[in-house]
Write a structure and sequence with these properties.
By secondary structure, the protein is α+β, with helices and mostly antiparallel strands. The protein has 2 helices and 5 strands. Belongs to the cystatin family. Phytocystatin subfamily.
Amino acid sequence: GAVLLVAAMLPEGAAAKWTAVNPNGGVVQQVGRFAVIVYDLAHRAGLTYVGVARGETEEAVGGGTIYRLVVAAATPDGSRAQYECLVWGVPASSLSTWKLRRFRKIAMA
């Protein structure tokens, strides 16, 4: 909680040094799948992970890595939507320590 408050007070982009990642990379795919599963468990939305459209990472203050991904997921009626998610974790650590910070639907243009 406190970390998010500090981040909110910084000017937009002040500390962010985002680096694009290969959306097909193994870790990125795992993180995207993790985000959809965690969100779905919490909200019972019936979402099924489809893939990662694009993503970027940033080293987190205090350790770990923040993944900002756009994931595609299918809804129970078969339609697909894209969601922006923010996941914090330490690469190669147990997924039980990872945190889903944000998951929101992106309006399709």
